[in-house]
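<instruction>
Derive structure tokens from the sequence
<entry> Chain with its tokenised backbone below:
===
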Amino acid sequence: MSRNHALRFSALFVLFAGSTAVAQQPSTALPPAATLVAKYSDAVGGAAMLKAPQITSKGSLMMAAAGINATFEMVQIQPSKMRMVTTIPGVGEILVGYDGTNAWSVDPMQGPRVLAGKEKTEIQEEADPRASVRSMELIEKAETVADTTMGTERCYLVKLNWKSGRETFDCYSPATGLLVGSKSVQSTAMGEIPVATIYSDYKKFGDFMMPTKMVQSLMGQEQS
């Protein structure tokens, strides 16, 4: 599942902000950001992802505090098209997509919307498989800023300045190169919301290595 789509689901029900705790480690020599990003891309099968004509992801979403359980299906089509449907029992379907030119969303609470500005920019990047593998073609600058922990796992925190103007933080495992967690500020219809995500339970799907569990933290609330 895309790193950001689950947030668009939860933003329909809550308006809050926050992040998981990040514990600083003693200062040591930090590996170059480009090395960490390249290792991550190799670890998740980046070359295969960029060649795949279509990638379909299915799963479930749970927000225990709100008593919400949902399912989703996301389809990404080369070079940069995407459509995601989230089905919430008792509420209906939430759709979001990008057709290569236009970004849009439809949900029972806000109706249909054509996305613009930062919302559109984020959808465009989410639809581009190069963003998933952190292709340097989309990144203006990458800098390793800390040897730290997210959740309970040690990782190297890398600040990414995207050419689109976004700023995000990835935390990569020194052992596997995989993403341990990430932090960003997401644009939604309700405004900009800081969010932190922990990735775990990685499994192999064909040529891809993907996390099968993602926990997002927003102002003390969690969704899985």
The longest helix spans residues 33-44.
